């Protein structure tokens, strides 16, 4: 059958989409998390198998196979494209490609999940490049040009995607981590300057976060953040705080909705400052992939980049006359924005405003809500053109 399969393997969920020869979407399915670095090979393959089987079972006639079980007994797919979070090296791609080919019955294109996000590049003739930026549970930024020799995309540069311990700027982990740090710093300042002169600081952000964990003291957040992960097979006792059953990284990322609500619903200044900082850090990363426009715009304020700590330590300063070789101009590119946080209009505006202040205004900005669908359509279009 002339079916095209695209799978978005994320840290929170897996989305599989099957397109027909004309690019129409025939079936889709959702599964559990499939970050390869977190799961390992066997658990990763199990998620892919179950999710794709669900999608196959929902195919309409005449595309419905006799069996939705994998591996298939006869060829089902002519192309398959997997964007996998946690796949960050050629070695990782080489490890998972053979078992995926055996499972799916077709040789798959395997890449980091940001590649799928850049699929809209193939839909527009007025742009030369794409910058794919993820602000979801985690964060990563990559840039691409159109591919050659049958490849959909040609990777150029990549920034970030270091995971919740080391980075994930602009994403949910970052927002949660910075919110905890902001509350702790506020308490530290008050302990030195406040007791004799003013009451302990209060904010909507503080109220929401303390209520979320069921505590009354900001410094109890230190215990919560650093408390060990729950055992793999663990049933909490009645009365045990709910957060003890949650992995440490999720304790931080689960705070992102509270930060957004405090900033954009309550108008809380501290929460808004947290999101300005995370938006600025993501803009720092995106800017590393961009070359200055010509002529260079007038500076609007000064910037001390949050990321990386010292760009001059590994790269010379780029100018319009001597740009870094793999950078692209925003004015000739599309920004493909993905992840739940990028889908929030006010947060996206913070990021775009940061970029515009540095002279980077993209020709197109597209929020890609369903990267697996965009990828499946791109596969079908590429097959028709070749």
Automatic annotation (TrEMBL):
Residue ranges of coiled coil: none
EC number of this enzyme: 2.7.1.59
Chain ranges of the ATPase BadF/BadG/BcrA/BcrD type domain: 7-290
Record Pfam families: BcrAD_BadFG
Superkingdom per UniProt: Eukaryota
Gene Ontology MF term list: N-acetylglucosamine kinase activity
Membership in a protein family: Belongs to the eukaryotic-type N-acetylglucosamine kinase family.
Name the record gives this protein: N-acetyl-D-glucosamine kinase
Biological source species: Ceriporiopsis subvermispora (strain B) (White-rot fungus)
């Amino acid at each position: 059958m002339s079916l095209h399969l695209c799978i978005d393997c994320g840290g929170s969920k897996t989305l599989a989409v099957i397109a027909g020869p004309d690019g129409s979407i025939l079936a889709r399915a959702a599964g559990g998390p499939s970050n390869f670095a977190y799961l390992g090979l066997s658990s990763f393959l199990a998620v892919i198998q179950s999710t794709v089987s669900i999608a196959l079972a929902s195919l309409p006639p005449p595309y419905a196979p006799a069996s939705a079980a994998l591996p298939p007994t006869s060829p089902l797919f002519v192309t398959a494209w997997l964007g996998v979070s946690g796949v960050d090296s050629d070695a990782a791609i080489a490890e998972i490609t053979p078992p995926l080919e055996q499972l799916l019955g077709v040789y798959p294109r395997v890449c980091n999940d940001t590649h799928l996000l850049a699929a809209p590049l193939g839909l527009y003739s007025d742009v030369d490049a794409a910058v794919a930026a993820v602000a979801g549970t985690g964060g990563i930024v990559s840039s691409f040009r159109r591919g050659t020799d049958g490849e959909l995309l040609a990777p150029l540069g990549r920034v970030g995607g270091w995971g919740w311990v080391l980075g994930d700027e602009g994403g949910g982990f970052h927002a949660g981590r910075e919110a905890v740090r902001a509350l702790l710093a506020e308490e530290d300042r008050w302990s030195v300057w406040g007791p004799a002169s003013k009451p302990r600081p209060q904010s909507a952000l503080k109220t929401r976060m303390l209520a979320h964990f069921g505590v009354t003291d900001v410094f109890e957040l230190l215990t919560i953040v650093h408390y060990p992960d729950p055992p793999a097979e663990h049933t909490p006792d009645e009365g045990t705080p709910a957060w003890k059953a949650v992995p440490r990284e999720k304790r931080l990322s689960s705070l992102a909705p509270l930060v957004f609500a405090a900033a954009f619903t309550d108008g809380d200044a501290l929460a808004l400052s947290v999101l300005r900082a995370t938006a600025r850090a993501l803009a720092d990363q995106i800017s590393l992939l961009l070359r200055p426009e010509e002529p260079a715009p007038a500076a609007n304020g000064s910037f001390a980049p949050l990321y990386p700590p010292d760009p001059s330590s590994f790269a010379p300063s780029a100018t319009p006359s001597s740009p870094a070789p793999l950078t692209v101009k925003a004015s000739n590119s599309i920004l493909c924005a993905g992840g739940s946080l990028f889908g929030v209009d006010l947060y996206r505006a913070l990021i775009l405003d940061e970029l515009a202040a540095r002279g980077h205004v993209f020709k197109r900005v597209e929020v890609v809500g369903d990267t697996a669908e965009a990828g499946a359509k791109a596969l079908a279009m590429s097959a028709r053109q070749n």
